[in-house]
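FORM 7B: Structural annotation worksheet

SECTION A. Query
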Amino acid sequence: MSASTFPPLLVTPPAGGFDRAAARDLVKESGLAAALHKLVRAPFGHTVLSLRALDAAIEAADLALQAGDALHAALLEDIARAGSLALPEPTRDQRMFVGAFTLTVLGDLAAPRLALIAPTPEVHGELESDGLEDLLVRPAREAVKSALALAGKYLEVQAQRQPGATSARLDEREVWAVTTLHAFVLQLAGALRRLTHAGRLRPFGVALSQRKVVVGELRYEGFSARGAEGPASDLKPVKLADIVGNQEYLQAGLKLARDVAAYDLKARRGPKQLNPVLFGLGRPGCGKTITAHAIGNYFLDFCKQRDVPARFKVIRRTDWASSYQNASAATLVKIFKEEVYGFEGVCGVYWPDIDTAFASRGSGDLRSEEKNNLGAVFGIFDGTLIPKDGKWFMICDANYMQMDEATRSRIAQNPFTVRGPTTAEDYVHLLRDVLLGDLRPFVAHGEEAGWAEVGAELVKADLSGRSVESVANNIRAYVQDFEYPDEYFRADYDRRKQLIHELSRRVDIAAVRQEIADYVRFHREAEEREAKDRFEREVETMVQQLNAGRAATARAAAAAAREIVGE
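SECTION B. Predicted structure
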């Protein structure tokens, strides 16, 4: 049965929640409210901060209970489709599945609300799994109540170990209490993630990803949540038609994307043995990034049309680079284990400028942090960190080959030279049709024969795609260089578009060629100045070294002369 056949699971809370009174009673019965009050007792009861923390727990419990009940009902419907008239009875694993989803929703809702009222804690572990499965098989209300009770016990235990709980200042105690409660939520989420992403409940996550599941403002893909209206990826809105040149690289990426989409999620194996890494080497501005984003969008659309759960992750330096010792490599491992391979569906990854992440081991002064980063990436590409089983693929690129041989041999197993536009036709298509396509009536309109000369000049200048975009932006700025009339601000959208069309300026083919010539001359002069400055700096350095050598020789000669005289 395809994902479109499964009815969606939509849990949309009304204004004021489903049953906040019952959720409030549940929080009270669990003992969490009493545990918080004991730590931050104020003259008139709870503090503002502790009340906001309890409100977060109540709101999360209210919606999580409804999500659990909705999933339980959907599960019974699926069981009943077998055709039996007997009352369906879920298995233990199925009850655990419902409980795990209920508590996952509880944590996904509570954590961001707690983060708004106190600092987010640094958590480096997860709760022990002993007793977790017994908790999950309980009905949703009992599971949530038990989880809240554990949160209260966690506060009591931590209060005996940490000095923040006994501070003389009430404001410090309440911040400590809320931060500690948040830490429990995150550690519980870690324990659930281990069970749902790598444990016995993983197949249920794969099955759940086949259904549209929205809880409040969260859209679930299996057990993983994102904003209901948020993007499925952080890709730019680039289409295949926007790519000019780079066709060999593009087609290789599309084929790799299709092969990964064919991965069998039930059997947990792919039909082909493939190299999951596509590496592109090219100068800055040649189109490496835009090509990777186009492949990523194609991959997501291809999978969506075939009801295959998919994700595409862009690796940015800010995602993992850390000033803390060994934290960068640990975060890299976490990204690939949890977000890439731990995802219930298939996954694509784009890692731009991958060469900047790994210093050459031949430099002789490799830091411990860099060694750990190399170890992490070697594990990814060797298949020792996550299996190279066809469930994921990665596009990575670099401007220069500044890695050592061991790194290059692993990353560049499927290398391509990315050149961008190379022919006159490529350059004309990029400038006229892609970058200035919406301005065709204003740019060299009716002068089609002149575009051949434009293409020839661009080939001769050997501009990168990014440089051509700069030329296009200059032309666009000239075309749309006008003052808005007062009528514009009173007009509707259609009239505004008409006014822009009426006020835009025309550019002939001679002006386009002049813009290219100006751009090329400016950058040639800039490069010549840079080369001259670099040459002068090198000469100055050589002179300084030569003078230092002469001075050292003179000092050595003088010392030798003194020794002779002394003898």
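SECTION C. Observations
Strands lie at 9-11, 213-215, 218-221, 224-227, 277-281, 310-314, 346-351, 392-398, 415-417. The chain has 20 helices and nine strands.

SECTION D. Sign-off
Analyst initials: ____
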